[in-house]
Amino acid sequence: MSSFFKAILLALSAAIALAACSSINIPNPFSSGTKELSGAPVNATEYICEGNKHFYVRILNNGSDAWLIYPDHEVNLVKSAGNGNLYTSGAISLDLRGDSTTLNDGEKIANAACKPQVKK
What we know:
Layout: H1 3-22, E1 45-48, E2 54-60, E3 65-69, E4 74-79, E5 86-89, E6 92-95, E7 101-105, E8 109-116
Antiparallel strand pairs: 1-2, 1-8, 2-3, 3-4, 4-5, 5-6, 6-7, 7-8
């Protein structure tokens, strides 16, 4: 077989392979799109605040961490040494005080009077 036919066969094979790859949907882990959770996360407590805003919290590591679960991402908060109810991470603070729990996430989110929901 001549080198001309080999080159054409190679180009044709590459074109078919590239066309097949374009029909495959490969998820991008760095995508900026948001995915909303389909239900309550396992082993997490839902808090409902003023204005019907809500978030979930999962306590981990014997109470030393609080996993704050938003609809589109999660944040680990560490228990503050001076206040047993306060968990923080940078500008985010979560003060767990039963029916008067507060969540402040910098300037974006300030939720007050958040109440834990009893699982049924």
